[in-house]
Amino acid sequence: MLEPQAPEVVWIVVVAFLISFLLAFGVGANDVANSFGTSVGAKVLTLRQACFLAAIFEMLGAILIGYKVSDTVRKGIFPVEMYEGAERELLLGNLAALIGSASWNILATFLRLPISGTHSIVGAVVGFSLVARGSSGIQWNKLGFIVASWFISPVLSGTVSVLIFIIIRHLILKKENQLEVGLTFLPFIYAFTVFVNVFSVVHDGPSVLKLDKIYWWGALITGLSISVITGIVVWCFVVPIPEENYS
């Protein structure tokens, strides 16, 4: 068994940290366009504001709900037990996967090619495990679920987006007084958005913050409470007061 801080592997950890920074840079640069492209294009945010907000919330997203993804990549694709007694080989393999994924992410982003950070790192990890242990080194059933999610997720997100658009179109866009109706529904839209995000963070949050000890109903109550507060704040401070109320 290799010691955790053995001198012969410390350099691997240090280099992996630096490569991870480059990988995060590439993924972040790609995600900024996905998250803020429409806002910057519509001139709601400047490019500087978008980058500032992205730096904050991309980091929060990785910390609060990104650990399950990293946990799956760490031990969900291949059985870690196969590398008992060969920990240095495992470290080198993961380092190679990081280098390959980071290089491809940055190159594809620079060339303006469509790229997925998840696809890149999963493919890199599968590649190194196939080289190191052959086909027996892959947990094919779990890999199948990961690949299936790449197809199911866009379908589900597209379906939800269409349903939300239909609801907004029916309740707001088809009305004669669109602005007034839209402002009326604005607190509910904010509240729903905040509820989804808070529930996701509390329900699937990292164990280091003890969020894994909160039951689903606790996450539900937390999400509902914060969303109600958000709706009230938006109603009081964001929705403008009609001019006739001043008379």
Short description:
With about 250 residues, this protein is mainly alpha-helical. Helix content is about 75%, strand content about 0%.
SSE order and pairing:
Elements: H1 7-41, H2 47-65, H3 67-75, H4 87-110, H5 117-133, H6 140-173, H7 178-204, H8 216-237
Helix pairs in contact: 1-2, 1-4, 4-5, 7-8
Molecular structure report:
It contains eight helices and no strands. It is mostly helical. The C terminus is likely disordered.
Structural class comes to mainly alpha
Share of residues in helices: over 70%
Rg measurement, Å: 23 Å
Which regions contain 5 or more consecutive residues with pLDDT less than 50?
243-247
Arithmetic mean of pLDDT? 84
Assign an overall shape.
elongated
Distinct helical segment count: 8
Sheet with the most strands? Answer: none
Number of strands: 0
Q: What is the H/E order? A: HHHHHHHH
Distance separating the two termini:
80 Å
Portion of residues in beta strands equals: under 5%
